[in-house]
Amino acid sequence: MTARSSALTVLHDWRHLPEAARGASVALGNFDGVHRGHAAVIRAAHAARPDAKLAVLTFEPHPREFFRPDDPAFRLTLPAERNAALAELGVGLVYELHFDDAFSHMTPAQFVAEVLHDGLRAVNLACGPDFAFGHRKGGDVDFLAARAEALGMGFAVVPALADAHGVISSSRIRRALQDGYPERAAADLGRAWAIHGPVTHGDKRGRTIGFPTANVPLGRHLEPARGVYAVTVRLADGRVFPGVCNIGRRPTVNAGPESRLEVNIFDFSGDIYETEISVALHAFIRPEMKFSGLEELKARIAADAAEGRHILDRMGLASA
């Protein structure tokens, strides 16, 4: 059960692994966002055993999604995005283990013995100080340290990465995005935060007012602050264009209760329906507003586009 992306191999079970997928130095965690703190754990896993394969063990769905399925979407990265970011950090193996009811009842001792030792045959483990695992999160780093030593596996707890504002975490990045500060999220991530998804058919209202848009569902992604952003858009063929996007419920045209992302891609024309694109948020321009009609909306969209070009030019991204 493997999927391969360039040099990255993704496996979904710890049982009956091929020998080539065993014996790695393994970083443990959810890795939502693959932020700078996660990168520090991965670097520590590699530094401890540079002779071994570098791997990450994570869970899908995210345990929070499993236990609280009715919560609002909160993910910073979905599996394909997360794994691409891990590959950029030099990770060669991802153990993306299916998190279900049976797995959630595995005791901490079972997880260490059956998954990490017998299944993965990990030679080294690394995690952050808050890593918890097993039934009801009964296992902590102290337990893991003791069991790893008893089973002959190396182990390191990597101190949380912090700056003047506190610990860098997925939760902090989510708050920054929900508060309308994508540049703060980018500083913690080490790259701009992006929403990935297929271009779907909308009501095509944008083209009637001179600003055609590509519509991308938010899906399981976190919904950031509603409003207009300066963005860059990576198309499926790898080309990158500047643009502006609106995230929200479009109160002027009252299209429905669900938020959506609509992006106006500058200097681009072409059919990209049903292709996957990535919309990276660089700066918040204004919050969502309701206008008196389409003419006022059209004028404001033109002003937003001009502001977006100015922002992206200042950031060196106007001809991304």
Textual characterization of the structure:
There is one protein chain. The chain is α/β, with parallel strands linked by helices and 320 residues long. The protein folds into 2 domains: 2-163, Rossmann fold (3-Layer(aba) Sandwich); 169-314, Beta Barrel (Elongation Factor Tu (Ef-tu), domain 3). 30% of the residues lie in helices and 25% in strands. The protein contains 10 helices and 15 strands. Strands 1-2-5-4-3-6-7 form a 7-stranded mixed beta sheet, with helices on both faces. Helix 5 (108-119) crosses helix 6 (141-150) and helix 7 runs antiparallel to helix 8 (182-189). The protein is elongated. The two termini are 37 Å apart.
- Mean model confidence by pLDDT: 92
Global shape = elongated
Q: How many helical stretches?
A: 10
The strand order across the widest sheet is 1-2-5-4-3-6-7
The proportion of residues forming helix, as a percent range, comes to 25-40%
CATH hierarchy: architecture of the largest domain: 3-Layer(aba) Sandwich
Poorly predicted spans: 1-5
Terminal CA distance reads 37 Å
Structural class: alpha/beta
Blueprint (SSEs and pairs):
Layout: E1 2-5, E2 8-11, E3 25-28, H1 36-48, E4 54-60, H2 63-67, H3 79-88, E5 93-98, H4 101-104, H5 108-119, E6 124-127, H6 141-150, E7 154-157, E8 162-163, E9 166-167, H7 170-178, H8 182-189, E10 194-198, H9 205-208, E11 214-216, E12 227-234, E13 240-248, E14 260-265, E15 276-287, H10 294-314
Parallel strand pairs: 2-5, 3-4, 3-6, 4-5, 6-7
Antiparallel strand pairs: 1-2, 8-9, 10-15, 11-14, 12-13, 12-15, 13-14
Helix pairs in contact: 5-6, 7-8
